[in-house]
Structure formats: C-alpha cells, structure tokens
Design brief:
16 strands; 8-stranded antiparallel sheet; single chain; mainly beta; 2 domains
C-alpha cells in the first residue's frame, strides 16, 4: 500500500511539496506525528516492525547535477543488531542506482554514521573508519552537498553544522540525482526495530541551508543575472517575505 503524506515536517525554500511514503499496513509505517517534531507541530516518525523498507520520497522535477539537502534526525529509539547497518537517506538516479547512501551502523554498542558515494574512486566509509562519526542519542542536523563534474565531482557532509567529511575528486560526470528517499531503507535485518524521527527536510541546488531553510542572499546572488532591473537588496527583501 502506498500512502501520500502532506509534508507538515518539511520546510522548503519557497513552496511545499507532497512526499510519498511506502507504508504497508503490515510492515512499518511512515507518518506525520506530533511526537516526532523537532520544531513546529509535526515531524516524520518511521516505525520499523519487519524487514520491509519504509520511507518517504522527494521526487525531483528534473534530474540534477548539483544537489544540497538538510534535515534533522533522531535515532535514539532505533535498535540495531551488533554490526548491523541501516540506510536512512539515499539519493538515486533515474535507474535507481544509489548515488549517495547515508546509514547508521551499530558497532561496539555505539551508533555510527556510514557513507557510500558512487564515483571513481567508489567511496565507502563506515562509521568505524572515522572515530568522530559516533551518533549520540537525541536530535542532530545533517546537511550534504553533491555535484557531478568530470574529475571534480564533490561530496561534503556536515553534522550539527560541523564538516565531518568531504571528497573533492569524484569522477561521476554522467550522474544525475532524480529522487531522495528518507526513512528505513536497505539493511533491515532481523533484530532491527524501533523508530527514527525526521524533521525540517529542505533541499535546493546551491547555498548553505543551515538553520534557515531560506538563504535568500545566497540564492539571489546566484540568480541576479536573470534580474537585470532589480537590485539585490530589493530581491532579498522579496524572497525573505516569501519564505516566512
């Protein structure tokens, strides 16, 4: 059963979209829930009850060669078996090949972040490989930037506003992101259970998102060439009012 959830938990730069949840009534569920809110009234709570994937999807209108996204996540009540690993954020191309995979792993009674990036060289960094990638209980922010350029593809990741990882020489020139899924994805083994909460998902092509999902100054500075008869201050005022 496929279920459409209005995005009470999503704050976009200037518009709201619908996110589609794969939410089987027998399997886990992905629902807007007041108890899952980091801010505002609703967050997204993904409940895991078997090995079926449960997620929401942001399907992009056009394939993108640059993409940035930010969200809040809380894995306090996620239960993983030792050495288990669960994808929670995945970006795909039109053939559903994984271009970015961000997952939570369980190692030595600690939850850690694991990263997979498609490219040349292919990149797979598990939480145990970087000592500072422990994910403590409670809410955390995650922001990442990805681009595909011949020999100069990039991936950068920030957790709680601090840069945790970057790879600046990916050869991924033919890659284009067409969809992002958030929830409990690949890696749902026996012994995986509990809930994951998400909130404040926002995405755009450029500009740091941070705590403000509408960075008017940066976005308009990139687009000012298409507005020759307006000054930047007036455009910033205009977009800031749209974003309220």
């Amino acid at each position: 059963m496929t279920q459409t959830i209005h995005s009470q938990f999503k704050r976009a730069t200037s518009f709201f979209i619908l996110l589609t949840a794969s939410a089987c009534l027998i399997a886990g569920t992905a629902m807007a829930d007041q108890q899952a809110a980091y801010s505002g009234t609703y967050g997204l709570r993904v409940s895991i009850s078997d090995t079926s994937p449960t997620y929401v999807a942001d399907v992009l209108a056009l394939p993108l060669t640059t993409y940035r996204a930010k969200l809040m996540f809380n894995t306090t009540d996620l239960v993983l078996p030792e050495n288990g690993e669960l994808d929670i954020v995945v970006a795909y191309d039109t053939q559903e090949v994984t271009l970015i995979g961000l997952s939570i792993s369980q190692e030595n009674n600690e939850k850690k972040l694991a990263i997979r990036i498609l490219g040349d060289p292919a990149l797979a960094i598990h939480g145990g490989s970087l000592s500072d990638m422990v994910i403590s209980d409670g809410w955390h922010s995650m922001e990442f930037f990805w681009s595909s350029t011949p020999g100069n593809g990039e991936f950068r990741l920030w957790i709680d506003g601090n840069k945790w990882f970057q790879q600046l020489d990916l050869s991924n020139s033919s890659a284009e992101i067409t969809a992002i899924r958030v929830g409990a994805l690949a890696g749902l083994d026996v012994g995986t259970s509990g809930t994951i909460d998400f909130d404040e998902f926002a995405s755009q092509q450029n500009c740091w998102i941070g705590t403000d999902t509408c960075n008017a100054t940066c976005m308009l500075a990139n687009e000012q060439g298409s507005w020759p008869n307006s000054n930047l201050r007036d455009l910033v005022w205009f977009l800031n009012n749209i974003c309220l």
